[in-house]
Design brief:
Order of helices and strands: HHHHHHHHH
Low-confidence stretches: none
Helix content: over 70%
Strand content: under 5%
Largest sheet: none
Number of strands: 0
Radius of gyration: 20 Å
Number of domains: 1
Shape: globular
Mean pLDDT: 86
Number of helices: 9
Length: about 220
């Protein structure tokens, strides 16, 4: 995987500044902006996988980008359901434990809180599993354009097992891009929107590289 190329290719495009600035402005819009950025990510990955020499997407088809982003958000929501359900269960346990402790029912409350603490590593483990699965599902969707294929959890899990090292690297790079995207808030305040647009473009290139090395599914 050419990590250096992913960080530098943006600047090869004559319109890179306009694309990143517009992306940052769009990202400021609540909900809509986040959906469009996911679509921008998918478009970048698709362009890279197709061998486009200038894979940075333009903002001249915002409706299509938004629609693509909706599919990406749906994939993320479906794969995050175990985390959401576990978080709700843990929240209820914590509230119940705090309630019983406030009524001086220390034995019951302590037992509930201990159960919460014992189950907390499970939530962490599930979270670590879900994100790589989500990346695999994204790759499958970009390859096929089919949500049905992307949501075949068993098939996506098999895909990850075939190259665990590669998927782990992609996941770590996603975290790195998230750090890069957040730098704007540290140094420039609202500039986080623009660094996030750049980081999205970078990870889109990395995702596209992964697509090129991933055999398409048998439909």
């Amino acid at each position: 995987m050419d990590i250096g190329r992913a960080f530098s290719y943006v600047f090869d495009d004559d319109e890179w500044l306009t694309v990143i600035l517009l992306g940052g402005l769009i990202a400021i819009v609540p909900i809509f902006g986040q959906i469009v950025l996911v679509g921008f990510l998918f478009e970048t990955a698709r362009n890279v996988a197709a061998g486009n020499s200038r894979p940075l997407p333009k903002w001249n088809h915002l409706g299509d980008t938004f629609s693509l982003g909706l599919s990406g958000i749906l994939i993320q929501i479906v794969y995050a359901l175990p985390i959401v359900l576990l978080s709700c269960a843990f929240g209820c346990l914590m509230a119940a434990g705090a309630g019983t402790l406030s009524r001086q029912e220390s034995a019951v409350g302590g037992g509930i809180m201990l159960t919460f603490l014992c189950l907390l590593p499970l939530l962490t483990l599930v979270s670590l599993i879900v994100q790589p699965l989500t990346l695999g599902a994204m790759v499958r969707y970009i390859q096929t354009g089919s949500l049905g294929v992307a949501l075949r959890v068993g098939a996506v899990a098999s895909l990850l097992r075939s190259d665990m090292g590669g998927w782990l690297l992609l996941w770590l790079l996603q975290i790195l891009c998230g750090v890069v995207g957040g730098l704007g808030s540290v140094f420039f305040g609202v500039g986080a929107a623009f660094t996030m647009a750049y980081a999205t473009a970078v990870f889109g290139h990395l995702l596209g590289q992964k697509i090129t090395s991933t055999p398409p599914p048998t439909l």
